[in-house]
């Protein structure tokens, strides 16, 4: 499999991994904040007297809570990644890579199901494909650094 020497053809691999990890964490914090705002909005809709608004509020509440659960777990793994990068622990980076691949598979399946069921606009399809390709590139960069860390086959590398 590919092992990159640089991130984005010009940035040191280690620095690129730190940039990816910190941007990942900032994105997760933003999504967490938006999920809490969505839960608040759903609560207002659920308390509405209109039954249609209650149904929409309940659906929004379910979506926001599920999103929040996934993102909080992903945030924990991102923190594990950052610890692994800062302390040069390949096992931590490997844990993040495993979870990220599993999460990406679920995301790809959900995008395919969404396209099959609703037929979203072409812009949504293009943005989803772009996100998936960018995420694959970032995972390959992180994997390249993990390989260069001397990962071996052990889940937890040297201290």
UniProtKB/TrEMBL annotation:
<feature type="transmembrane region" description="Helical">
    <location>
        <begin position="95"/>
        <end position="116"/>
    </location>
</feature>
<protein>
    <recommendedName>
        <fullName>MARVEL domain-containing protein</fullName>
    </recommendedName>
</protein>
<keyword id="KW-1133">Transmembrane helix</keyword>
<keyword id="KW-0472">Membrane</keyword>
<feature type="transmembrane region" description="Helical">
    <location>
        <begin position="21"/>
        <end position="46"/>
    </location>
</feature>
<feature type="transmembrane region" description="Helical">
    <location>
        <begin position="122"/>
        <end position="142"/>
    </location>
</feature>
<keyword id="KW-0812">Transmembrane</keyword>
<feature type="transmembrane region" description="Helical">
    <location>
        <begin position="58"/>
        <end position="83"/>
    </location>
</feature>
